[in-house]
Design brief:
The chain is an alpha/beta fold. It has one domain: 2-Layer Sandwich (Nucleotidyltransferase, domain 5), CATH 3.30.420.10. It contains 6 helices and 6 strands. It has a 6-stranded mixed sheet. Helix 5 packs across helix 6. It starts with a helix and ends with a helix.
Length: 168
């Protein structure tokens, strides 16, 4: 069984609302001061996922934590590493292909994640999308349980999956 099979084995608990679908985002970036996007992931209650890594971020801008913990986890999905402009285009296309009914809501547990996405897009989310900070709605114990079983903490895709699982 692969890592992806194990992740899929843990249900997100299904779509929670008939009038909206939540999409949980996580990003990894170089540093809080000189923030440059490294990777972005979105995991939907409906099973849709997006993941991409920027191949042209500036390594010297990365702080020690990012170098030690985040960077070694990159490259697990080789076809998902691309130049920043291609990552922007692919994310835009992915967002535009998500049905607007039920209403899509981009959920994040840190304003930094939302800012990284809007910076990547070069502006706001596409028409029809809403966004919500769900920091207070992420159950830390469930998040930790997910990480304990599946690992990958501080990898955008695995953290987005853990947030989706831990949302209450």
């Amino acid at each position: 069984m692969t890592k992806n099979d194990l992740i899929k084995a843990v249900p997100i608990r299904g779509q929670r609302s008939a009038w909206k679908t939540r999409y949980f985002i996580d990003t990894e970036f170089s540093d809080f001061k000189a923030s440059q996007l490294i990777s972005v992931a979105i995991v939907g209650e409906d099973g849709r996922e997006f993941y991409g890594e920027s191949s042209d971020f500036e390594l010297p801008l990365c702080n020690g934590f990012v170098r030690e913990v985040v960077l070694p986890q990159l490259g697990q999905f080789p076809s998902r590493s691309m130049p920043f402009t291609q990552l922007r285009d692919e994310l835009r296309v992915w967002l535009l292909n998500v049905p607007l009914r039920p209403k899509p809501v981009l959920c994040y547990d840190s304003n930094c994640d939302y800012e990284m996405v809007t910076d990547l897009l070069g502006g706001p989310l596409p028409r029809g999308w809403r966004h919500e900070n769900v920091f207070l709605k992420i159950d830390a114990e469930r998040f930790a349980q997910h990480v304990a079983v599946h690992g990958g903490e501080h990898h955008a895709l695995y953290d987005a999956r853990a947030n989706a699982f831990a949302f209450r």
